[in-house]
């Protein structure tokens, strides 16, 4: 076997392609696993073939792909896309916060804006405000529930929105009482509008 050239040692013809050389080397390594001397001889033959083809390329006799010269450097190119940012917020917060599209925010905004306009309309009597508030709460309940079909969760979020809206509206009314009366709003109308804003935030950005 020592008189054989490197191609004969691997059982190849001299016009074998690089892929054929690689496949043959891989197959022989598997077939003769554990035969140290034979494996060393095959590796020596493989290296000799690569060096010969490199020499032939330098002499302009053959065009050898770069991967033949440095097969161990054949590394996959890095991805061209940027990896998505890692969200480090707590899991409970990720499950609570929604990221709606512009269209998903637009039509609830229009509905709550319409309810607010009806509320602040000069001809609207304060006696109708409980009905307006009920409509706003029902709208919020519907919008939150349609996202994940969890009625109990939607009910609690809407109830929380009502409490926060009424509490915040009452607090602001006490602080801005003069300014609110100057624009022609009664305290109850102002509280109702603030509640609608909170319910809109809840129905648009929570789930």
Gist of the model:
With 207 residues, the chain is mainly α. It has ten helices and no strands.
Outline the secondary-structure elements.
Elements: H1 6-9, H2 18-31, H3 36-58, H4 66-69, H5 91-96, H6 102-120, H7 129-148, H8 151-175, H9 177-182, H10 187-205
Helix pairs in contact: 2-3, 6-7, 6-10, 7-8, 7-10, 8-10
Q: Tell me about the biggest sheet?
A: none
| Number of beta-strand segments | 0
Radius of gyration: 38 Å
- In DSSP terms, counting alpha (H) and pi (I) runs of 4 or more, how many helices? 10
Based on CA inertia axes, which overall geometry fits?
rod-shaped
Could you estimate the helical fraction of the residues in percent? 55-70%
Run of helices and strands:
HHHHHHHHHH
pLDDT below 50 for ≥5 consecutive residues: which ranges? none
Structural class by SSE content: mainly alpha
Average of pLDDT: 79
What is the CA-CA span between the terminal residues? 75 Å
User: What fraction of the residues are assigned to beta strands by DSSP?
Assistant: under 5%
What does this structure look like?
There is one protein chain. By secondary structure, this protein is mainly α. It has helices at 6-9, 18-31, 36-58, 66-69, 91-96, 102-120, 129-148, 151-175, 177-182, 187-205. Helix 6 (102-120) runs antiparallel to helix 10 and helix 7 (129-148) packs across helix 8 (151-175).
Summary tags:
about 210 residues, rod-shaped, mainly alpha, single chain, 10 helices
């Amino acid at each position: 076997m020592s008189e054989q050239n490197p191609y004969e040692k691997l059982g190849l013809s001299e016009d074998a392609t690089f892929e054929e050389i690689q496949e043959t080397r891989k197959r022989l390594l598997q077939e003769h696993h554990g035969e140290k001397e034979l494996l060393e001889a095959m590796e020596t033959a493989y290296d000799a073939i690569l060096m010969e083809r490199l020499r032939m390329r330098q002499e302009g006799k053959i065009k050898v792909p770069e991967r033949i010269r440095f097969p161990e450097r054949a590394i996959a190119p890095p991805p061209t896309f940027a990896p998505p940012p890692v969200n480090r917020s707590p899991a409970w917060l990720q499950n609570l916060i929604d990221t709606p599209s512009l269209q998903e925010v637009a039509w609830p905004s229009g509905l709550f804006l319409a309810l607010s306009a009806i509320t602040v309309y000069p001809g609207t009597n304060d006696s109708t405000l409980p009905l307006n508030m009920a409509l706003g709460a029902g709208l919020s309940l519907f919008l939150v529930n349609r996202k994940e079909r969890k009625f109990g969760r939607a009910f609690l979020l809407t109830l929380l929105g009502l409490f926060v809206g009424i509490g915040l509206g009452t607090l602001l009314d006490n602080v801005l009482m003069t300014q609110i009366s100057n624009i022609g709003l009664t305290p109850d109308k102002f509280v109702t509008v603030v509640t609608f804003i909170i319910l809109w935030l809840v129905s648009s950005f929570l789930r």
